[in-house]
Write a structure and sequence with these properties.
This protein is of the alpha/beta class. About 50% of the residues lie in helices and about 10% in strands. It has eleven helices and nine strands. β1, α3 and β2 form a beta-alpha-beta unit. α3 runs parallel beside α11. It is globular. About 40% of the residues are buried.
């Protein structure tokens, strides 16, 4: 009994010491995490972004509301096509890992357009993909599917992650895992009306439709509740890319931005 009593006493003493230590450390750590420029105290690794940087990315999505998503079959076409989209008015662009030499081209564009165009990387399927994208300068990450590990890894480091989801359940799961924007992919029947219905039922979401968005209906998706939109093949028409008609892609970009701009910025939730 005496031995048991001493063990219990030691346990309470140790737990009290731990609790006291937590009370003394937690306020400073919490204050540091909440400070605008502080890194997340949960990770603190080289991949961790600042709170300010995360808010900057989300503010730019809310302001511009349209992202040019590029996937080309050749390395040579990639920078020319993306330059055309930027010349046509896009301020947010996404390179994809399925494009040859994607990371090299993205790094070049980050150096060239830093502070003028926000640049992200997509088709990130796992944490190593995300690290490779960030190493090359990606300001946000996009995935075609919902992988919990990837979303949580990014969320813990204040990296803006936009995972692909195809149902209201997946969209909501992405939100609970920490994705501040949820990509609706692939296109769904009903298009803008589907987004309107889901947004009304789940107003905490920030839905980013990609497939199904074209040169003329981008604004309609935004009016129906989409937080932003992604333009892929309708913008980067494969036929225009194949023949090197970069002026044609720039004209497509102007047409999209002409439909998006009148809708105005998103009021962030």
């Amino acid at each position: 009994r005496k031995m048991l009593s001493r063990a219990v006493s030691r346990a309470f003493t140790q737990s009290g010491a731990v609790a006291a230590a937590r009370r003394s450390i937690a306020p400073a750590a919490f204050a540091g995490a909440c400070a605008g420029g502080a890194r997340s105290f949960a990770t603190g690794d080289k991949w961790t972004k600042t709170k300010d940087d995360k808010e900057r990315v989300l503010d730019l999505f809310a302001l511009h509301r349209a992202c040019a998503v590029l996937r080309t079959p050749t390395s040579e076409a990639c920078p020319k096509a993306m330059t055309a989209a930027i010349d046509g008015g896009f301020k947010i662009v996404e390179f994809t890992l399925t494009t040859p030499d994607c990371l090299k081209h993205m790094a070049d564009f980050r150096a060239k357009y830093d502070g003028k165009v926000m640049i992200g990387c997509g088709t990130a399927m796992n944490v190593q993909d995300v690290k490779d994208c960030l190493e090359a300068g990606a300001e946000f990450i996009v995935a075609p599917v919902l992988v919990e590990e990837v979303v949580r890894w990014c969320a813990e480091r204040d990296v803006v992650i936009i995972p692909g989801c195809s149902t209201p359940t997946e969209l909501y799961k992405a939100y609970t895992y920490g994705a501040p924007i949820q990509k609706l992919f692939p296109g769904v029947a009903g298009g803008a009306n589907y987004v309107k219905a889901v947004s009304a039922a789940l107003p905490m979401l920030n839905i980013n439709p990609t497939s199904g968005v074209d040169l003329d209906n981008a604004g309609e998706f935004l009016k129906s509740g989409a937080a932003s939109v992604g333009l892929v093949a309708p913008l980067f028409d494969p036929a225009l890319v194949a023949k090197g008609d970069w002026d044609g892609i720039a004209a497509n970009a102007q047409r999209v931005i002409g439909n998006v701009t009148p809708v105005g910025p998103l009021k962030r939730k």
